[in-house]
Amino acid sequence: MTTTLSATKPAPARSARRISWDILRVFAVFCVVVEHVTHQSAVNHPELAGYPFVLPFQFGASTMLVISAFFVCVTVGKGRPGSWLWNRIARLLPAYFVAVLVTYVITRLAVTAFNGLHFSDGDWLFGTPTASNPWLFNTWNLPTGQDLLGNLLMVQAWDPSLHWVDPSYWTLPIQLVAFACAAFLARHKLMTSRRVPVLLWSLVIMPIFLRFFVRDPGPQWIKSIFDGLALNRVALFGVGIAIWLWSKRRMRFWHLAGYILAALVSLDWHTYWTDTSSTIAVGIVLIFVVFAAGGPDWNIPVVRRMTPTITWLAGISYGVYLTHQVLGYILSRALLDIGARPWERLVASLIAAVVLGWLMTRLVERPAHRFLSDAGPRMVAWIRRAQIHAGRLGTSPARPVPSPRPVSQASTVVAGPPTSGESLPSMLPANSQSR
């Protein structure tokens, strides 16, 4: 009997998770971290220069946007678009808000010490300081309460008077806008086979036109809109969509290759051809993204032994991204002040990024995501019950317009014929429309 039961017991289903995507996520995020620590830190704060090596190519964040767009296409059609959008918001925003607050407080404390500031009113959190040595050279900006509010509202890119609490946050507003657009398109089924190519190529061509014929010669408010929406980067979302279409055999390879090339040219064009090396680096990484999308998983023996570590790092990658830049600069400056050597500062910055990313993921991102993911459906159900209850009480009729049928005529349960605003072909399956 025992043998029979064990023989008929179904084998556990294998996970569909592909290690290749985790490798790309980890690679992209830590390229951002290393570039910020070794290169951008010296640009913003020259005293932090002197690391053993420098990674000057800015391609990690661009790769992350491409991967994000790819997985939007993979997931947006599964379930209701509204629930999908709420799930994305529940994951991104709570951790972002906490990261802004923590970075603001630590920056105020650190810059006060670095710049020799003191506050006559004792309000070090929001007050205006005075320098004990007005001739002290420094490159550290002290964020204000106005900066904090602007960053929490994600409008810092729209107002030139605001400073970024952390410059790495520039990807968050445009990702949220992209998610909202994806949910809208999926909800209304606007992404047909004829419209997708128009959308893709408009993401490349329109920003170029707006940049050189509208933004650059235009007033500041136009520049603020263009920069706030990061229209110079939207072609990267198009690349992610194109790679997904190709992986589903809905785009030919030559079309994909031409589109990626056009998107890369547009990226370099937006920088006035001043950072071609970074654009080439983006192109090289995109080759591996295409391989990950269309080829077999990279689950080779060497990678298989590292899978737990890679998966863990991929799981905390968003937390690492939120906490590594400005806090890493502050740590590097503190270590420099006590005589730490370049290698020590570099290793300490990388370890701190991982530890802070893990804490953000464990203490904020995942608990908030679970709570809000459960709270969203409960709130919708509560609103629906309230509407039904109000309708029964006569305060909110279910049908504001009287029915043309007599009262004695039964109402149908199934969906009726198309209304005047809905054509029959739009309700048929795709293969029915093509016949």
From TrEMBL:
<feature type="transmembrane region" description="Helical">
    <location>
        <begin position="19"/>
        <end position="37"/>
    </location>
</feature>
<keyword id="KW-0472">Membrane</keyword>
<feature type="transmembrane region" description="Helical">
    <location>
        <begin position="168"/>
        <end position="186"/>
    </location>
</feature>
<keyword id="KW-0812">Transmembrane</keyword>
<dbReference type="GO" id="GO:0000271">
    <property type="term" value="P:polysaccharide biosynthetic process"/>
</dbReference>
<feature type="transmembrane region" description="Helical">
    <location>
        <begin position="198"/>
        <end position="214"/>
    </location>
</feature>
<dbReference type="Pfam" id="PF01757">
    <property type="entry name" value="Acyl_transf_3"/>
</dbReference>
<feature type="transmembrane region" description="Helical">
    <location>
        <begin position="343"/>
        <end position="361"/>
    </location>
</feature>
<feature type="transmembrane region" description="Helical">
    <location>
        <begin position="253"/>
        <end position="272"/>
    </location>
</feature>
<feature type="region of interest" description="Disordered">
    <location>
        <begin position="393"/>
        <end position="435"/>
    </location>
</feature>
<dbReference type="InterPro" id="IPR050879">
    <property type="entry name" value="Acyltransferase_3"/>
</dbReference>
<feature type="transmembrane region" description="Helical">
    <location>
        <begin position="89"/>
        <end position="111"/>
    </location>
</feature>
<protein>
    <submittedName>
        <fullName>Peptidoglycan/LPS O-acetylase OafA/YrhL</fullName>
    </submittedName>
</protein>
<feature type="transmembrane region" description="Helical">
    <location>
        <begin position="226"/>
        <end position="246"/>
    </location>
</feature>
<feature type="transmembrane region" description="Helical">
    <location>
        <begin position="278"/>
        <end position="298"/>
    </location>
</feature>
<feature type="transmembrane region" description="Helical">
    <location>
        <begin position="310"/>
        <end position="331"/>
    </location>
</feature>
<feature type="transmembrane region" description="Helical">
    <location>
        <begin position="57"/>
        <end position="77"/>
    </location>
</feature>
<feature type="domain" description="Acyltransferase 3">
    <location>
        <begin position="19"/>
        <end position="361"/>
    </location>
</feature>
<dbReference type="GO" id="GO:0016020">
    <property type="term" value="C:membrane"/>
</dbReference>
<dbReference type="GO" id="GO:0016747">
    <property type="term" value="F:acyltransferase activity, transferring groups other than amino-acyl groups"/>
</dbReference>
<dbReference type="InterPro" id="IPR002656">
    <property type="entry name" value="Acyl_transf_3_dom"/>
</dbReference>
<keyword id="KW-1133">Transmembrane helix</keyword>
